[in-house]
Amino acid sequence: MPKGGLLAIRISALEVDARRLAQHSEARAGQFVCLSVIDTGCGIPPENLRRIFEPFFTTKEVGKGTGLGLATVYGIIKQHQGWIEVESEPGKGTTFRVFLPRGLEAAEAGIERRAEPPARGGTETILVVEDEAPVRELVCNLLAGYGYQILQAESGAKALQVWRESKDRINLLLTDLVMPNQMNGRELAERLWTERPRLKVIFTSGYSADVVGEDFVLRPGINYLQKPYHPHKLALAVRDYLDAVN
After folding, report:
1. How far apart are CA 214 and CA 134, in angstroms?
2. Nearest to 176, CA basis, from 234, 215, 122
3. Taken in order 99, 100, 105, 108, is the CA torsion positive or negative?
4. pLDDT tens-digit series, residues 102-160
5. pLDDT per residue over 206-229, tens digit each?
6. Which residues contact 238 (CB under 8 A, 6 or more apart)?
7. Is the pTM of this model over 0.70?
């Protein structure tokens, strides 16, 4: 909405019936919660509307977007046994509807949660590479709170510069797989492995490894965290990978 407008967010509980099943191929019958996001913006042309959930499809200029936002949303909703619908018309705004299964039991009632093991910290140096500034700041602050020494970069090119200056003290590379510009996280790791083949790497992404590339295989000493992940899970993974024997 470049000139402003109205953004409405609504939530409702409903039962999906045969009529909606006929309207949307991914719909399922049953009790669902529907989250609707409605705007009065410029709308989406029909030729783009059918492609908006494709990974890497974007109408933004080079360097302004990766085309992963809606694809990530779609993947997260599918993981939770839901689906997403969209209606849009140029000049008349857009409506997204997210359908998620409704839990009929009382939340947390009678559930015994298994205690998570405590996460230990350390003093090793971690290079964090993440193009989204708020995510990068959150991860860096979290790991620094566990005692780690943190170096950070917003791109693969910047990470190479940091590596040249501090490579002798970097113990772990934590990098997003998909980043703008010319170098992604995988290419960055491969560059660093040429200098230090045993460097430990944790990849993160909103996609599973098979979506990022069919030939991408996790190797011993490398691991993968799919976004969104819990901060405690990140802390555990970092400690476990640093302690693992290559």
Report:
1. 30
2. 234
3. negative
4. 986 655 554 455 666 788 999 999 999 998 888 899 999 999 999 999 999 999 999 99
5. 765 555 555 556 553 458 887 778
6. 126, 143, 146, 148, 172, 174, 202
7. no
Q: Are 78 and 208 in contact (CB under 8 A)?
A: no
